[in-house]
């Protein structure tokens, strides 16, 4: 039985989802107790939530979306700190590797090639329709983050396969380039 934890960060909450053997098992959301908390207190609360989540859900592997581009350096810094807390908790729990990917890669892996630019709202609507028994929040209250976290957890194997294929292609290109010299 393989338990995959997906994490989708955003600037004001975090979506988390667990898939067991490719089937949805859990979706949740983390929000700070007060949005006005200083950043260090939000990180401390996130750390406690991560520790509790890893202990309760007992994942074997983890996957998370990483920020690629942001117009705000403050947003980039803030999200990267939350990502780091997630990675450290995964390592402390015994997960040696957290699969990281960029926005859209999980949707492309889940919905199929050419669908990586599926809008977050459309992905949410699809997930709610196909998994109606899960406790979805409204889209503007964290539901879209739950949806993206679940998509990641369900797409883990395909994401890993694509990452391995890209690494093999890069290695082959380096060998061709070295042989041409």
Strand fraction equals 15-25%
Largest beta-sheet details: 5 strands, mixed
Structural class: alpha/beta
What is the averaged pLDDT score? 91
Helix-strand pattern: EEEHEHEHHHH
Fraction of helical residues: 40-55%
Cα(first) to Cα(last) distance is 48 Å
Radius of gyration: 17 Å
Tell how many strands the DSSP assignment holds.
Answer: 5
Work out the helix count: 6
- What's the overall geometry? globular
Strand sequence of the main sheet, in spatial order? 3-2-1-4-5
Molecular structure report:
With 181 residues, this protein is of the alpha/beta class. Helix content is 52%, strand content 18%. The protein contains six helices and five strands; from the N terminus they run βββαβαβαααα. It has helices at 39-57, 73-93, 105-111, 120-130, 143-154, 156-180; strands at residues 3-9, 14-20, 23-30, 61-66, 98-102. A five-stranded mixed β-sheet has the order 3-2-1-4-5, sandwiched between helices. α1 packs parallel to α2. The protein is globular, with a radius of gyration of 17 Å.
Properties at a glance:
52% helix, alpha/beta, five-stranded mixed β-sheet, 181 residues
């Amino acid at each position: 039985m393989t338990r995959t934890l997906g994490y989708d960060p955003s600037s004001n909450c975090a979506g988390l989802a667990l898939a067991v053997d490719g089937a949805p098992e859990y979706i949740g959301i983390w929000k700070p107790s007060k949005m006005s908390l200083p950043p260090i207190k939000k990180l401390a609360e996130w750390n406690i939530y991560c520790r509790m989540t890893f202990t309760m859900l007992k994942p074997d592997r983890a996957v998370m979306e990483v920020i690629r581009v942001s117009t705000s350096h403050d947003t980039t810094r803030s999200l990267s700190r939350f990502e780091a807390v997630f990675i450290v908790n995964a390592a402390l729990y015994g997960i040696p590797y957290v699969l990281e990917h960029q926005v859209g890669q999980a949707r492309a892996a889940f919905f199929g090639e050419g669908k990586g630019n599926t809008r977050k709202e459309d992905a949410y609507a699809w997930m709610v329709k196909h998994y109606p028994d899960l406790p979805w929040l409204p889209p503007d209250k964290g539901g879209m983050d739950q949806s993206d976290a679940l998509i990641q957890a369900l797409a883990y194997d395909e994401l890993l396969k694509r990452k391995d294929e890209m690494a093999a292609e890069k290695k082959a290109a380096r060998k061709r380039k070295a042989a041409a010299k």
